[in-house]
Amino acid sequence: MEPLPGPPPRTKIVNGRIITPFRVIPNGTLILEEGKIIGIEAGNPELPGVPEIDAGGCWVAPGFIDIHVHGGGGHDFMDGTETAFLAVAELHARYGTTAMIPTTLTAGKDDLLQTLDAYERAHRQNTKGAQFLGIHLEGPYFALSQRGAQDPRYIRPPDPDEYREILAYSSSIARWSAAPELKGAMEFGRYLRSNGVLAAVAHTDAIYEDVLEAFDNGYSLATHLYSAMSGVTRRNAFRYAGVIEAAYLIDGMDVEIIADGVHLPAPLLKLVYKIKGPDRTALITDAMRAAGMPPGESILGSLRDGLRVIVEDEVAKLPDRSSFAGSVATADRLVRNMIRMADVPLPDAVRMMSTTPARIMGVADRKGSLAVGKDADLVIFDDGVRVRNTLIGGRVVWSRERIGAA
User: Whole-angstrom Cα distance, residue 40 to residue 237?
Assistant: First the structure.
């Protein structure tokens, strides 16, 4: 792949409503140079000879960061090819995603290692799509009772020999999701933390006490809150708080939600925002390969042995319609839904798609907000959150006008 030209030495983005960490600047100007933000000003300062991008009165926001995504555009990361990785990154960049954490599914060790190899190759070639910030292993250490659409053939308890080998194999693993009630899960969480990998609670039937112990042992994020996890349960007639209640009660625990408008209805979106707030809530697509594709049959996971699914009602489902099988959302839809369905102010909705995920993944020093010195990753969109331009490192990687989109 031929590398694209680098960003121009200096560029202005003018006539935009700029969302900064502290305020919105109407009719503001961003000044970019060598892939970084070097100035944020009200009005349009005179900079002779500097090319301009006219935002046309649209919103100028930090680029969206998707920390849980499986695929899109007909491709899935579990295909295990650099072609799939690059195609997914390009598809989601069209909808404002400037950085992502590619996510796996439950699989055998060899398939996971193959996917890690593909990530490494694609990471070096990725010049047109959302940047890769590391990989997320979703499973295979899950509760079978909460598998959702995860393939039961590969679900198993934590195996120290296996996870130590996988972590030694690749330094690109950024997060790993597991069920904390499984035997060996606490040791697993501690090992992840010692290796700088984010441990997350997922696909679990744990109760509050399990999650509290897990939090003390390194698990700091609830993976797709409400989906594939326990709420209040009864055992021997006694009620126990589940993972959902634990995520609310543990102030320091972050949550991520699939705000596609299907996985969670409006009242639950409002509840998450009310209790956890924009600083502890990340929006995720959890998108599978059918994102950006027409409805119909699709495959969750690899083309070789993935699960057949049906895409209808703007979501993927198992063929018997017993469970959702991942979303087909893009980041712009998540932001739009939080505004329209959950009555969230636009800057807060943007924060949950940029600043908060950047902080959760430890990249807030360079990404997630429009501030001097940060990477020039940004998205320009209108009042309907329809993306007009996506810039990564100060370079336009997608433009609605360029391709003549409506």
Answer: 60
pLDDT, position 6: 62
Identify any residues that bridge with 283 across adjacent strands, giving them in sequence order: 257
Q: Are 220 and 254 in contact (CB under 8 A)?
A: yes
Strand partners, 16: 28
Q: What is the pTM of this model?
A: 0.96
Query: CA nearest 290: which of 303, 299, 302?
Result: 299
E-assigned strands of 158-306?
173-178, 198-201, 219-222, 233-235, 238-240, 254-258, 281-284, 296-300
**What tokens does 60 get?**
């100028």
Q: What angle do CA 365, 400, 258 make, to 5 degrees?
A: 55
Phi and psi, residue 83, nearest 5°: -60, -45
The first and second tokens of residue 90, run together, are 């390009």
How far is it, in rounded angstroms, from Cα 339 to Cα 386? 13
Place of tokens 């596609």: 260
Q: What is the pLDDT of residue 318?
A: 87
Q: What is the pLDDT of residue 9?
A: 79
Distance CA(107)–CA(357), nearest Å, equals 26
Give the SS3 label for residue 275. Answer: helix
In the block, residue with structure tokens 């995504």: 69
Beta bridge partners of 12: 31, 52
Percent of the chain's residues with pLDDT above 70: 97
Residues 105/78, Cβ–Cβ less than 8 Å? yes
391: left (phi over 0), alpha (psi -120 to 50) or beta: beta
Which two tokens mark 81? Answer: 């090819």
**Angle of helix 82-93 versus helix 109-125 axis, rounded to 10:** 60
Could you tell me the CA-to-CA distances from 363 to 108, 119, 232 in Å, in that order? 30, 19, 35
Residue that the structure tokens 């509290």 belong to:
212
* pLDDT score, position 327: 95
Helix ranges (DSSP H) in 13-93: 82-93
Domains and CATH numbers, the chain: 11-61+369-403 (2.30.40.10), 64-360 (3.20.20.140)
Segments of the chain scoring below 70 in pLDDT: 1-8, 402-406
Q: Determine which helix (DSSP H) or strand (DSSP E) holds 350, and give its type and residue range.
A: helix 346-352
pLDDT in tens, 278-335: 999 999 999 999 999 999 999 998 888 888 999 999 999 989 998 888 899 999 999 9
pLDDT of residue 1: 37
